[in-house]
Design brief:
By secondary structure, this protein is mainly α. Helices cover 47% and strands 9% of the residues. The strands form four sheets. The protein has a three-stranded antiparallel β-sheet with strand order 1-3-2. α2 crosses α3 (53-70), α2 runs antiparallel to α8 and α12 packs antiparallel against α14. The longest helix is centred in the middle third of the chain and has 19 residues, at 154-172. The structure holds zinc ion.
Length: 340
């Protein structure tokens, strides 16, 4: 058995991370999230807590109009009548007062409701409170937003803007974002090449897992066309690499065999951050392969570090990166016996 290494340190996301979570992984991947995030960061620089819908409509519509000029195709959950009004404002056929009126009426449908909703987790902070049903309809900015803005909103604004541009470029290419890769060397969006076939990885990885899913220990098969064929899963979600937030997740150190349910079932891991227990297990797996002089030994050492403490730090860094970008943590119950 490998030497017992020190424990991994859990990570508590910061407010900045929560905002990143909203922008990257919130419900309804659409322009409005970016426009609302930018508006909130701007408004957070002021001292006013109560923001009327008219006050909010100004920065919100300004950001949407600006982006429509550079990228006519903006996916959004709000009605196209709002986007049409923005287009009319851009071509001079609608005045600013009318744009604000249309934004107040149509621009925030589902936008304010959905802002704090993540796909897999409830956001534990609130950047504003919805007061649209009060006597003076609007939103109330919270201490969390002011604290975020007080730490400097320039960086956060730049990040939101970068991500907005990234996704609208994908929309304008009329390809699904899942088919777009970010090439950090050239800072360009590139069509994702087909992932290298990983079929043979099943045999290489199964030696350690002994026919059991990495997460739930349920039985998996490595026989092609067999029932319950193991899926080659990226422990740290490959999604982070597709978004340009991480490199080299498509390497053997990050690959495990999982049953279909754990990998992509309704309650499966999908793009979520793996629980620390799984990170510790991945470390154990990699150390086992290295210490047993497995054919993958040199590969694993080249990819993650020459010494065990270096490799530990490597995984801790990856966990930090994953947790701070993808807040939702996933774990599942064991259905098989971990001791086998
Ligand atoms: Zn499983």
């Amino acid at each position: 058995m490998p030497t017992r290494l020190s424990q991994f340190v859990n990570v508590t996301p910061t407010r900045e991370n929560y905002l990143r979570g909203v922008v990257l992984f919130g419900l309804n991947s659409a322009s409005y999230k970016f426009a609302l995030a930018k508006s909130l960061l701007e408004l957070g620089d002021g001292r006013r807590e109560a923001i009327s819908l008219v006050d909010l409509a100004e920065p919100f519509s300004r950001h949407v109009c600006e982006h429509l000029r550079r990228a006519p195709r903006q996916a959004t959950s709000v009605g196209s009548r709002f986007l049409d009004a923005c287009r009319s404002f851009n071509d001079g056929s609608l005045d600013h007062d009318r744009l604000i009126a249309v934004t107040v009426k149509l621009g925030f449908n589902n936008v304010i409701d959905a802002f704090h909703a993540l796909r897999q987790a409830d956001l534990p902070v609130r950047f504003f409170v919805d007061e649209r049903r009060s006597a003076s309809p609007g939103i109330r900015l919270t201490g969390d937003l002011f604290a975020l803005a007080a730490r400097g909103s320039a960086q956060a604004l730049a990040e939101v803007e970068a991500r907005w541009r990234l996704v609208e470029t994908a929309w304008s290419l009329e390809i699904s974002r899942s088919l777009v890769a970010y090439d950090s060397a050239t800072e360009q969006l590139v069509p994702a090449s087909h992932r290298a076939p990983l079929v043979s990885a099943r045999d290489a990885l199964n030696g350690y897992q002994k026919g059991a899913c990495f997460y739930c220990y349920g039985p998996v098969s490595t026989v092609a066309k067999g029932l319950g064929l193991a899926e080659v899963d990226h422990l740290f979600p490959h999604h982070l690499q597709r978004l340009g937030l991480a490199a080299d997740l498509d390497q053997v150190w990050n690959l495990v065999l999982a049953c279909q349910g754990c990998n992509r079932g309704p309650g499966g891991k999908s793009d979520k951050t793996p629980h620390l227990d799984y990170v510790a297990r991945l470390e154990q797996r990699n150390e086992y392969l290295i210490e047993s002089h497995h054919p993958l030994r040199e590969t694993l050492m080249a990819q993650t570090g020459l010494t065990a403490p270096e490799r530990h730090r490597f995984l801790q860094d990856k966990y930090y990166m994953s947790r701070t970008n993808q807040i939702a943590v996933w774990r599942t119950a064991a259905v098989g016996d971990p001791a086998l």
